[in-house]
């Protein structure tokens, strides 16, 4: 029995590099890149983006939303994201100019205007989502918000 297990494990160790070589792996035998190589800092940016998106929707998870409410919230958030995509892209470009020291007064005013537009869009999203909630869910959301504001930032 143990001889069979040892033989099976040994065969697996031999087979992995052989399969890897057939796939055309450029990292060497037995190693395979799961995703394309990212530039420095990109992986962290992607993780942070995912965390922010999950955090925004997490607040609603504790409210016991119905399936229909969840679907509507996702639709509202997605449509808002689609509407603000060009604004966020412009902000990204202006921030790059700011980092390189090429940001003039007009561009700073434009950046402030973009921030205000995105802030107004967020307020609209909150209002639309709040219209979907029941009174009990709104009460729970207010309690969560108050607790979050009272707790020290981590």
Question: Could you explain the architecture of this structure?
Answer:
This protein has a domain at 51-148. Helix 3 packs antiparallel against helix 4 (105-132). The chain is mostly helical and 154 residues long. It contains five helices and no strands.
How are the elements arranged and paired?
Blueprint: H1 2-23, H2 42-61, H3 67-100, H4 105-132, H5 135-150
Q: How many helices does DSSP assign?
A: 5
Structural Rg = 25 Å
Terminus-to-terminus distance: 54 Å
Secondary-structure-derived class: mainly alpha
- Give the H and E element order: HHHHH
Q: Give the overall shape, derived from the CA principal axes.
A: elongated
Provide mean pLDDT, rounded. 76
Work out the strand percent. Answer: under 5%
The main β sheet shows up as: none
Write down the oligomeric state: single chain
Strand segment count: 0
Low-confidence runs:
18-26
How much helix is in the residues?
over 70%
What structural keywords apply?
5 helices; mainly alpha; 154 residues; single chain
Quick synopsis:
This protein has about 150 residues and is an all-alpha fold.
